[in-house]
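Re: the 165-residue chain
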Amino acid sequence: MRKAISALCLYLLAAVTCMAKEPHRISCGELARPSQSVLKLTHSISLVYVTTYYELCAPDRFGGSAQLLVLREKWTGKKVVAEPSNVVALDNANYEQLVSLLNRALKFNTEANFPPVVDGTSTCLETQRSYYLKVCFWDIEYQTEAKGLSGMVALSSRLVALGSK
């Protein structure tokens, strides 16, 4: 019995040390001028183990501009390697466009019944307004119209374009 418990403890210790520790991700509330998060979009490419996080921060209450936070992470087996966070200042036109695209993205087809494409990409959208919502979709660019995901594709594409600046 003692040997079994010792072996179990040794196994658990090895498992804990091998687990990847997620790096800290900066959020809207941690900026120099904190603000509220409007949306979070996570885009994961499973074949290459890369995840990109986008967070849209509303203009702060003191009149500061809206901001887009972008973080890319790559899983390399035992650890997650994160690039430095990119903070993109947005003018009112870009901010309003993203809010409009968010409204369009939230009009997806809940009746669509497509098998998951498990070797592709997944996209998750998270927002909190008068309600909290988080939805995830496999491969949003596959049968986009049938799934009602054209708004999600447009929002994702715009975030990618702004985040690469």
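The chain has one domain: 24-163.
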